Amino acid sequence: MPPFNGRMEKLMNIDDLMAPGKHPIRVAQFGTGNFLRAFTDYMIDVANEAGVFDGDVVMVKQVPGSGPDRLAAQGGQYHVILQGKQDGKIVDEVRTVTAVRGTVNPYTDYEAYQALARLDTLRFLVSNTTEAGIVYDETDKFDALPAATYPGRLVQFLYERWQAFNGDPEKGLIILPVELIEDNGKALKACCMKFIDLWKLDEAFKKWVEEANIFTSTLVDRIVSGKSQSMSEKFPEDSMYVVAEPFGLWIIASDKDISGEFTLAKAGIPVIFTDDLKPFRERKVRVLNGTHTAMAMISYLCGVDIVADAMADALLRKYIDYVSYEELAPAVPQPIEETREFADEVMERFENPFLNHKLLDISLNSVSKWRARDLPTVCDTLAAGKNPKVLVFSLAALLAFDTIAEDKDGQYYGKRPDGSLYPIREDRKVVEAVQVKSEDDVKRILSDESLWGTDLSGLSKQVYASLTAIRQDPRAAVEALLA
Q1: Percent of the chain with pLDDT strictly greater than 90
Q2: pLDDT band for position 116 (50/70/90)?
Q3: Which pLDDT does position 476 carry in this prediction?
Q4: Which of 88, 269, 292, 473 has the smallest set of CB atoms within 10 Å of its CB?
Q5: In this model, does residue 8 exceed pLDDT 80?
Q6: Which DSSP letter does residue 306 get?
Q7: How are beta strands 217-221 and 249-253 bridged, if at all?
Q8: 3-state secondary structure 238-262
Q9: What is the mean pLDDT of residues 160-176?
Q10: What pLDDT, on the 0 to 100 scale, is given for residue 73?
């Protein structure tokens, strides 16, 4: 395993950016988190080694006062550990990623941030600022250094580049947001255009952003798990290692063909270019994410902590298979054979014995997740005159999971049947809105369109009956459901 070379001992300054390296800096990455390091930076590193890309990455910090200072201390290098099952075979691989040239912090060195924007070799901009990152806020200021919002900071970045190259149309960027919102590129571009108008920036700049830059919409898929004691002991010199599954998929839609420039696929990396993301997104959100959300809360209440253990539990596996193959997959508007093959692949990924994928992590913001991932299938199934009994049961499990047992230090806690407490990782107002003491409460909650976007009160009796059974004995409730 190659040792870290210590080439980056601090966050980058202007001189660092201008210094030559093995590869030119071609990618600005807005975001420094585990997913980007295990996904984008890993893929670029593989493509560099294969000789098909030739480009390094500079990270741009998006949160004041947060990492990756530790990454700087490691010379910009870290390990990606891919572990799991793929095509029925066990994969256990380690890669030392060397494609990250450095990091700039616009909060402490705005000049270095501007220097990155002026870099002649720059061509791509990747971002992952979470689903809440792509937002328009009319109180944001152009003269704030930097702006408060990610689209605002992006406009500042592009404005600096436009000025530096006198509006040269060849110096626009290919922008690849991977935030998990629908049509993320279109949403990001719309926010940027609003800021340009709000801040009354040059019409010529607005035209350059519109015509010289390519805002792609993307869909990404790779499960990245948390750290483990055994892995930390294996890589004691690396505090920034990431563990992920072997599966990875990057689907990119754009008005202009960028496959000739963003050449990762030539290294065998699963990057797909398309003109329509919707079928891919529909399948992933409904089958993969929908199954995760439908199984997480009930599995946790049944005493299981991680996804792989739920898959190994005979009763829960029966539940998971039913909701995936019998309710979610048939509702995807694609040939059922293709969707079932995708579901097979998802099940293999969920069985991954290496990933410590915690059910509590999946439970984060469960109300909004259930609405986005499972509700569409519920509505489609009901419209077809059928009863999506397991998905409706999963809604009852969500309400059981979000039942407040204690309130300590501003954090609500639920209680497992064994008496142990767990944090309810949901907005406090949402938690308070979904508390159930009677069937009338269920009817009130399900008719609240601010929670669900529609009136679900017709499911009240079914949900209340399941909720009552789950509160009495979660495992017995699952057994009765599947019987």
Answers
A1: 83
A2: very high
A3: 98
A4: 88
A5: no
A6: B
A7: antiparallel
A8: CCCCEEECCCCEEEEECCCCCCCCC
A9: 98
A10: 80
Could you write out the DSSP letters of every residue in 157-182? HHHHHHHHTTT-GGG--EEEE--SST
For position 2, what pLDDT does the model report?
A: 45
Q: Hey, what long-range contacts does 408-412 have (CB within 8 A, 24 or more apart)?
A: none
Q: What is the pLDDT of residue 1?
A: 40
The CATH architecture that domain 14-274 belongs to is 3-Layer(aba) Sandwich (3.40)
Greater pLDDT, 100 or 9: 100
H helices, E strands: number in the chain: 23, 16
Strand-strand pairing, 406-408 and 271-274: unpaired
Residue given tokens 């980056």 in the structure block: 8
Residues of each domain in the chain carrying CATH 1.10.1040.10:
278-482
Write down the mean pLDDT value for the chain: 93
Residue among 179, 255, 190 nearest 216 (CA): 255
CB atoms within 10 A of CB 347: 18
Domain 278-482: state its class: mainly alpha
pLDDT in tens, 403-442: 999 999 999 999 999 999 999 999 999 999 999 999 999 9
Q: Are 89 and 102 in contact (CB under 8 A)?
A: no
- Across 275-311, where does the E strand assignment appear? none
Given this model, what pLDDT does residue 389 score?
98
The token pair that represents 266 in the structure block: 């030539």
Contacts of 358 (CB under 8 A, 6+ apart): 226, 305, 306
**With left for phi above 0 and alpha for psi between -120 and 50, is residue 80 left, alpha or beta?**
beta
Closest listed residue to residue 451, CA positions, set 426, 474, 476: 426
How many whole angstroms separate alpha carbon 255 and alpha carbon 103? 30
Contact 246, 184 (CB under 8 A): no
3-class SS of residue 400: helix
- The model's pTM is 0.80
Domain with CATH 3.40.50.720 in the chain: 14-274
Contact between 158 and 108 (Cβ < 8 Å): no
Cβ proximity of 222 and 38 under 8 Å: yes
Q: CB of 323 within 8 A of CB of 391?
A: yes
Position of tokens 């002026």? 118
- Cα torsion 144, 150, 152, 158 to 10°: value is 110
240-263: average pLDDT: 95
Beta-bridge partners for 413: 406, 423
